[in-house]
Specification:
heterodimer, A: 114 residues, mainly beta, seven-stranded mixed beta sheet, B: 114 residues, six-stranded mixed beta sheet, four-stranded antiparallel beta sheet
């Protein structure tokens, strides 16, 4: 199993540009989520999905969209990038989404918005 | 709402010395507690977790953590650290009603010196 994969690993955008961060998992996990990691702030939940066709907002959803058309994929879209979105983004998945499940993290995407 | 406090942003320690990384949480309901580790330029991986039962949980590489409900703490300990333990450690909590949504602390960087 490849686990959780994320592309790209690095990205530089200009303010106002849009892009999609890709996330895929091959473990047949129902639950997937996106976090951003900023220095001194830990990880904060952006959006999550408990299964195909179902998404919900986390702690910091503004400026981001998600969709979940398949169990495997959970892309994160930045509609109009802002410098405040400069961060490291992690995708994670877990088996069923019930409390206590271990979450498996991807390697991250480092995004810089100029 | 749940929250996690990791008071120490950095903990320097000499190799083979003991270490304790502190974690306190705030929640009005029963919780599940986790420690995740992030090695340089990698994603997070689960170190250990407390779901129920014995309040002392152990990892395969010598770390242990004890759930203390009265003090709302879940401190991480290791009796003798190695250079390879150098990493950032995140404490996280999820509530029974919130599924797999994790709330992370701000992280503690463990720096092991020879």
């Amino acid at each position: 199993n490849a686990g959780v994969t994320q592309t790209p690993k690095f990205q530089v955008l200009k303010t106002g540009q849009s892009m999609t961060l890709q996330c895929a998992q091959d473990m047949n996990h129902e639950y997937m989520s996106w976090y951003r990691q900023d220095p001194g702030m830990g990880l904060r939940l952006i959006h999550y999905s408990v299964g195909a066709g179902i998404t919900d907002q986390g702690e910091v959803p503004n400026g981001y969209n998600v969709s979940r058309s398949t169990t495997e994929d959970f892309p994160l879209r930045l509609l109009s990038a802002a410098p405040s979105q400069t961060s490291v983004y992690f995708c994670a998945s877990s088996y069923s989404g019930t409390s206590g499940d271990t979450q498996y993290f991807g390697p991250g995407t480092r995004l810089t918005v100029l | 709402a749940q929250s996690v406090t990791q008071l120490d942003s950095q903990v320097p320690v000499f190799e083979e010395a003991p270490v304790e990384l502190r974690c306190n949480y705030s929640s009005s309901v029963s919780v599940y507690l986790f420690w995740y580790v992030q090695y340089p330029n990698q994603g997070l991986q689960l170190l250990l977790k407390y779901l129920s039962g014995s309040t002392l949980v152990e990892s395969i590489n010598g770390f242990e953590a004890e759930f203390n409900k009265s003090q709302t703490s879940f401190h991480l300990r290791k009796p003798s650290v190695h250079i390879s333990d150098t990493a950032e450690y995140f404490c996280a909590v999820s509530e029974g009603s919130s599924g797999d949504k994790l709330t992370f602390g701000t992280g503690t960087r463990l720096a092991v010196r020879p």
